[in-house]
């Protein structure tokens, strides 16, 4: 099959198209060089400020925009909604510093429609810092860019009336077969969601535990901050019954601000977990960036543990260590939730919760920004229910009240 190429940019017809927006010529050049080394990805435009990016986005038609925050003429936060308006479906990755201001603006950008945020290297000159930034950025560009291209292809096929071509790409067969349904035959809003096997011969969903949950543990990554806010806000009236433990793939500073956001959404005290503190009902504990969070028994209490062991799935904090410890401490009284995110973190930990008799609920593919983490749980056969994001809070209400089975 021949590949047509954009004569102006050199991008192939199947390449993920990337725009880089940063006021630093050094950063623009370095990022463009990194991306140019990768097969299937092409830089189609670079700009020194948000105004130029907004003027060009409908012409360059990028799949992904890597957007700096602090720039002259028009900053990233101002440019973001204009980019999304002028080129619907474009994925915006916000690149910012690790400062509190940078973290605050990044979280604001996520609420305005950015798909992901990434912290720039700390400027210390450490090779590891730059290498990690490069790996994370490339993962985001390739995963989110591929999803954006697939979505636009489906929309184009639907517009052309070719329903077969519009079928969405899926994970391998072992991750397929489970679709959420409403209690009254799939009519949205008609009742509390229930889990159901969607295809004959597909792996059956696991039964829910018969033991009322004594803990709620949630894990997420790409798209996670907004998903977490929505889920916790929609079940806030029952969260005082259990401790709420959250792992979101984020660097230091970002996780402290995320805890504040989640506390406001849930109406509960929330903070980064501290080593050795008691884990009690009615509080939200967020894994600090750069450390794994676990739970352990100490005499007659359950306490938080922070671990500086190596990253898992390139992540620190990671979901798997928390889920494994939750399975060990709470057994069949553990309730886990895996929301949108790249990679497979959470899959092994969810399997540990399921093996201990606990329950795991995941977000469905359609409403996930990336269905990597939830898909890994589905592929492991570890989930009891798969639901669209707007229905997860309702299901958690029923489970925490002991009335959903």
Automatic annotation (TrEMBL):
InterPro entries: CheB-like, CheB_C, CheY-like_superfamily, Sig_transdc_resp-reg_Me-estase, Sig_transdc_resp-reg_receiver. One of its GO terms (molecular function) is protein-glutamate methylesterase activity. Keywords: Chemotaxis, Cytoplasm, Hydrolase, Phosphoprotein. The active site is at residues 221, 249, 345. It is found in: Cytoplasm. Its EC number is 3.1.1.61, 3.5.1.44. Residues 207-403 form the CheB-type methylesterase domain. It catalyses: L-glutaminyl-[protein] + H2O = L-glutamyl-[protein] + NH4(+); [protein]-L-glutamate 5-O-methyl ester + H2O = L-glutamyl-[protein] + methanol + H(+). Contains a C-terminal catalytic domain, and an N-terminal region which modulates catalytic activity. Belongs to the CheB family. Involved in chemotaxis. Part of a chemotaxis signal transduction system that modulates chemotaxis in response to various stimuli. Catalyzes the demethylation of specific methylglutamate residues introduced into the chemoreceptors (methyl-accepting chemotaxis proteins or MCP) by CheR. Also mediates the irreversible deamidation of specific glutamine residues to glutamic acid. This is Protein-glutamate methylesterase/protein-glutamine glutaminase. The gene is cheB.
